[in-house]
Structures are given as C-alpha cells and as structure tokens.
Amino acid sequence: MSLPIECSRINPMNWTIKCKNCGQIIGKKGHTCKVRPDNELIPCACGCGKELWNYDKRWRKRKYIHNHATRVLFASKSFRNKTRKRMLGKNNPQWDGDKVGLCGLHGWIRRNKPRSKLCECCNKVPPYDLANISQEYKRKIKDFEWLCRKCHMTKDGRLNNLNK
After folding, report:
1. If I label 138, which of 25, 57, 81, 103 is the partner at 20 to 30 A Cα–Cα?
2. How far apart are CA 144 and CA 154, in angstroms?
3. Per-block average pLDDT, block size 10, for the chain (164 residues)?
C-alpha cells in the first residue's frame, strides 16, 4: 500500500515530504505511519466487550486483544460441558456413522456401554475384552458384551485352535 504523501516547502533549499495521515516528516529511511484511513475500533472477538484497532503496528489484521483468543480454553465448566454436549454424535463434523473403523467402534462402545463387574458369560472373573456378538461390527451397543479372556477366545473359536 502506498502511503498518501504531500510535499511542503519548509526550507527553500530542501524539500521535505510529510505524511497526509499523521503529519510526520518522511526521512530517508522511510516512515511507518501510525494512522491508517481504514483503521477503526472493533469489538474483541472473544466477547469481552473491549475494543481494539483492526490493524496492528505492522498492518496485520486483528480480531482479538493479545491472549484473548485462548479464553475459550479457560472457560467455565458449565460452558465447556454445553459445548461438549453440542458436539456429541452426529453433530460432530468428524462423525463417520456406520463407516467407522474397528478401533473407533470399540472406543465408542467402551465409552457408551458400562463395564460389568463380572464376565457376562461365566460370571466368575472380571471382564477384560469387549466382544462383538454377530461379527458384523455395527454401531449397536446390544451387539457387544464384556467377556473375560477365556470366554472371548472360546466364543471366537480361538481356544480350540490354540489347543490343537
């Protein structure tokens, strides 16, 4: 952007150039004008109610007062919980639905299906594995069960292959 300048004759031997915006004399090294015609006060984007200039000293666009962009990180627990609930499930832009991979599906089931105290098959030992019943891997909580290692291997038929 070229700065608006205006020539004025102060000394008959020397011509000096003044900035139209701030009136400062422009020297050999140049001039960084502190006033810009389209620089105006805008409200801070974090919602604090304070105002700031929309350009900084180096003419970069600004939205926030320094360190106000990180205020969401330090928001109240109620605000964070509302935001978290709003982004759950299908409202999340990274939601894959039934196209989810095996690891993602197991993680989703672990978060949504409560772990039982004992294995759902033998009711003797605590469960370690989350087993799929139908082997179709759909996003249905009823299609999974918490099993101990032995019951999981028996249901999958791996225990018989191990003994052979």
Report:
1. 81
2. 16
3. 46 62 68 67 81 80 78 73 82 83 90 92 91 89 92 85 72
